[in-house]
Amino acid sequence: MAPVAVSRTQEATAPAAAPAEPKQSLSDLPKEALNRVWRGNAEGTIKLDAFPDYWTKTDEESLLKKRQYVKEHLALTFRYWGKMGFNEGAAGHITVRDPILHDHYWMNPFSVHFSSITVSKLVLVTPEGYVHPTLGAQLPINAAGYWIHSAIHKARPEINSIGHCHSVHGKAWSAFGRPVEVTNQDSCLFYDNLAVYKSFGGVVLAGEEGARIAAALGPKNRCAILQNHGLLTLGDTVDEVGYYFALLDKQCHVQLMQEAAEANGIKKNLIDPVDAAFTAATLQHPTAVHFSIKSELDLIAEREPECLK
């Protein structure tokens, strides 16, 4: 079956009516999306910095610090996924681009539980899909992880991180081959940002299936439902990938509950596309997504500091 991309998250059609007017306007808000959602003191001395001061620097010391940061946040994100119950056998993988070797990717080793991932267990994968001979852990990796992720990284060079695993609610909803609907504020994160790959070719053991998934994602979507398979998310950072995935799995759970209620005669209401687009313009900003998961990662770092070693 040929892959089909569905980027609209609203399948239901409303009765014909005059175009809705937005209840709020972006023109009245700060240009920077993150600055719309927090406030400091009147003097302006309270600051909110998303990333360390070395994040955009290119000297060797800064790049080495950034590499360590990326690896730590990859380990923390896996610990978070473990707490969410996303581990399923040997399935599941996250890749994140190395800040120094841009065509290399850090990822988890094969069949190691998400909740036991540490920085020292992370594997650096070469462009050819092999474990780097000197950098990173010398452990095997998931072949499907390479085939899926390498194809998407190639098709979407602006993306630094990709995540996929077989979460329960994601698997359950994926059987319908439908996007989740925008029925609450959090789900606006997926408004015009979600693809459905309407095919299942079995365990991904070759590059062709990875390329078809990449094509179904299209040029802008950062989230996908893989029919009869599970979920997949993309991001500028691994933090973004981790949050997108967890929230999409939760929204699949919400959707399943709503479908059950609707089957018993309780009609659900969809958010108007104008209001969904207004909300998405803030929620989907990469830095805003980063802060959405920050408290979870900070808590894990505080309680499980061994994962940073």
From TrEMBL:
InterPro entries for this protein: Aldolase-II_Adducin_sf (IPR051017), Aldolase_II/adducin_N (IPR001303), Aldolase_II/adducin_N_sf (IPR036409)
Compositionally skewed regions (Low complexity) per UniProt: 11-22
Any one Gene Ontology cellular component term annotated for this protein: cytoskeleton
GO terms assigned for molecular function: actin filament binding
NCBIfam families in the record: PRK06208.1
Extent of the signal sequence: none
Protein name, per record: Class II aldolase/adducin N-terminal domain-containing protein
Domain Class II aldolase/adducin N-terminal: 72-256
Protein species of origin: Apiotrichum porosum
UniProt cross-references to PANTHER family, sorted A to Z: ADDUCIN, CLASS II ALDOLASE_ADDUCIN DOMAIN PROTEIN (AFU_ORTHOLOGUE AFUA_3G09800)
Gene3D superfamilies: Class II aldolase/adducin N-terminal domain (3.40.225.10)
